[in-house]
Amino acid sequence: MRGRAVDDRCEERSAGMSTVEDRPTTATTGSPRKNGTERRWIGRSVPRKEDPKLLAGRATYVGDVTLPGMLHGAVLGSPHAHARIVSIDTSAAEAIPGVKAVLTGAQAAELVNPMPAFCAEPVPQTAIAIERVRYPGEAVAIVAATDRYIAEDACAAIRVEYEVLPAVVDPEAAMAPDATRIHETLDSNVAFHRVLDFGDVEGDLARAHTVVRTRARWHRMCASPMETAGAVASWNPFDKSMTVYSNSNFHNFLPWAFAGMLGVSTNRMRMIPCAVGGSFGSKHFITKVLAIAGALTKATGKPVQYLEDRVDNIAANDNVGCDRIYDAELALAEDGEMLGLTLKIVDDYGAYFQFAHGQHGNAMAQPTGPYRIGSLRYDVSCVLTNKVQQGFFRGAGADPGNFVLERLVDKASEVMGIDRAEIRRRNFIAPEQFPFKTPSGNVYDSGDYAAVLDRALELAGIDDWRAEQERLRAEGRYLGIGLATCQERTGYNASEWWFLYDNPPLPATSTPESVKMDVDAMGGVRVEVGCPLWGNSPETVVSQVVAEEFGIDPNDVSVTYADSTTGAMSAGPGGSRLTIMLSGATRGAARTIRDKMIRIAAHAMEIDPDDVECVDGTFRAKGVPGASMSMADIGMRAHLFFHSTPEDESSGLVAVHTYDHPYSTPPSADRTDMGAFYPMVSHACHIPIVEVDAETGVVTLRAYYAVNDCGTVMNPTLVEGQIVGGIVQGIGAALMEEYRYGEDGALDTPTFREYLMPSMHEVPEIVVEHLETPSPFTEYGVKGAGEGGRLVAPTAIASAVDDALKPFGVWVDELPMTPERVVDLVAGAHEGRP
């Protein structure tokens, strides 16, 4: 076990719950806490330090990188979902002036290795297909030319002869023994299957008064980042080294995996981070992009920039969201107590199993949600089809789990005649039960879910909306009030990647975060982080923590980004972890340096170090007015006056601090306990108000209310931005965003004309409030908040549509709720269809 024991209670836990609505937005006064502590900067809406360069266009994206002699890459994708490559003629492309290299899959394989796969199953994947394509858009050839236009023209000149094979697009049909194999090396298209029981599942089903069931479908969607995945690779053939500029999230976490793929020694691989330009999880690895740029720079000896175009990004990116079919049951006692939950899942992974069952690691962190459900059966089949492979996308598999569980709770409310808010209250984990161990073994750190629910109901003014609902129904209009109370697991540990295996290929247990901090001779604080600028606020968070620890202004803190050769270990963003982990790493480094400065100041003032305090950036003798030293005084002494410092102190003021996961436990050998791996658990209640046109199926959001608890709020404005942005993505998941494939496997949503996303016209006013139950495991009691909006919004909106169409007997069990599906639901209810 690492971290505190499950039943420990740290001092911050006694702070209970508080609101942050009355906090001032400027940091001119302290921020009092119920436990008597006072913070000056943690909890303040400090302006984002990242914004000026982003708004002024001064951040460096991959598309901004220009190197001497740089070439540009382009990709020819397959028009077929499944086909053998009979022949490829590249002669016309090679003859075009300005073309420097044309590579087929076999040729690229001589320069770079297959992409890393984080699974035990033999499903190798190359960035450019060899002999066979397995999804529409899969690369069959790549080109490097003096500009992108020439490279694209060269791709159009390549002639490929295909033998089209049957495409498999239905994941349940793909499971049949006689289904066309996606990979001939596998015995079937089921790449992974496991059934796990926690607690007395059969006993709970048998003794239940009521068992509600649902069959639900969650369709895949993509991140659609502002800048697509990209890289600039520069190969040095003389010392066999490679420098790569990329917008990968993991440049400082898995450079060895990238080096192995690119055929470069790990100590000769340098990855330089660029502004990510939007990721939402989709740029963790971007191995296709890196392999394409790497192969082309090796072939030409010149730097090569490859940036996906929008069609490439939609059809063939590394990471699309999950695509699942659920058959689920919830067993309840007569009084509405939730007893047991069973989930049978068919998950469409697309053509490759590159990231294994990683999204089920996320889902297993919170399958029973905020409820005291005693038993759980988790039955998962990971199935291969002729679609682009699944990867990580904001929510990473926990989002459909929330949808299915909350749909079951709403159905139980309806069947048992218990108000939907009341049935939740009866089953919430109580505040005094935290830290709480779930049936699967994960631990929830803290919470007061009933208080969040009550405040959300009050904030939304439910009685007024019910009155409005009745008024509109009299006019033949259908208003609906949604409700969802969901978890956001935050701060992952690497064990989630492998714990479903009995014999994992790489049973990693470390997801650390590091910073390098120094105070210069003039007292200036500099911090170098190992994570990239991925769209969140690392500079702001680090600056707030430094300001809190030294009592200085956050604007006086300089924050920079390290590359893979200079930065300390960093697992980067993902799983709503960075505020948690950066806070821990920064606070650790700050306190190491602060303690040294205290010792130097004490030596200079000839007093005991215990009698020195740091206040407002000044180190002063307690109770002795005027006896003090500034940070510049101590910085100068530490850097240039060695003989004036304590005898056992070295020169300088620098610290590298690595912060490991604050609380984790390993799974049991028999997998009856999956261990604690995602224990910082945020919670939210969302209440959307919708109006549904029953004839056209159009859903209009009228209002949206969200109450969120992510522990101690580091910066209310930043958290609100994350929540609102996540809700907007959740609106897309609920109403419009979906990959659609034809029977022949063709992608029917290849552009933004077919793949729809929410705009400002679909987003109502969103009212957000925060409540706080500090985590007992983390520095300052913070939890993550990066995915919470999206993890709750889709099911909350589904609940609202149900409520609106209750007169028709509609039950929403498939997302997104496109107009066509809503009309079909209404028609089906009229016809008595299930």
What does this protein structure show overall?
It comes from Pseudonocardia sulfidoxydans NBRC 16205. Residues 56-166 form the Aldehyde oxidase/xanthine dehydrogenase a/b hammerhead domain. Residues 1-38 are annotated as: Disordered. It is a single chain. Among the domains are: 50-59 and 508-659, Aldehyde Oxidoreductase, domain 4 (2-Layer Sandwich), CATH 3.30.365.10; 445-492 and 679-833, Aldehyde oxidase/xanthine dehydrogenase, molybdopterin binding domain (Aldehyde Oxidoreductase, domain 4), CATH 3.30.365.10. The chain has 20 helices and 33 strands. The strands form 8 sheets. A 7-stranded mixed beta sheet has the order 6-8-4-15-12-13-14, sandwiched between helices. Strands 1, 21, 22, 30, 31 and 32 form a 6-stranded mixed beta sheet that branches. A 6-stranded mixed beta sheet has the order 10-18-17-16-11-33. A hairpin with a 5-residue loop joins β16 and β17. α18 (716-735) crosses α19.
Largest sheet: 7 strands, mixed
Briefly note the CATH topology name of the domain at 445-492 and 679-833. Aldehyde Oxidoreductase, domain 4
Q: Whole-number radius of gyration?
A: 28 Å
CATH class of the domain at 445-492 and 679-833: Alpha Beta
Q: Which architecture of the domain at 445-492 and 679-833 would the CATH scheme give at its second level?
A: 2-Layer Sandwich
The count of β-strands is 33
The coarse silhouette is globular
Proportion of beta-strand residues: 15-25%
Order of strands in the sheet with most strands: 6-8-4-15-12-13-14
The residue ranges in which pLDDT falls below 50 over 5 or more consecutive positions are 1-36
Q: What's the helix count?
A: 20
> Can you say what the CATH homologous superfamily of the domain at 445-492 and 679-833 is?
Aldehyde oxidase/xanthine dehydrogenase, molybdopterin binding domain
User: Please, what is the average pLDDT?
Assistant: 91
Helical fraction: 25-40%
Structural class, by secondary structure, is alpha+beta
GO molecular function, one term: iron ion binding
Keywords: Molybdenum, Oxidoreductase
Region (Disordered): 1-38
Biased composition (Polar residues): 25-34
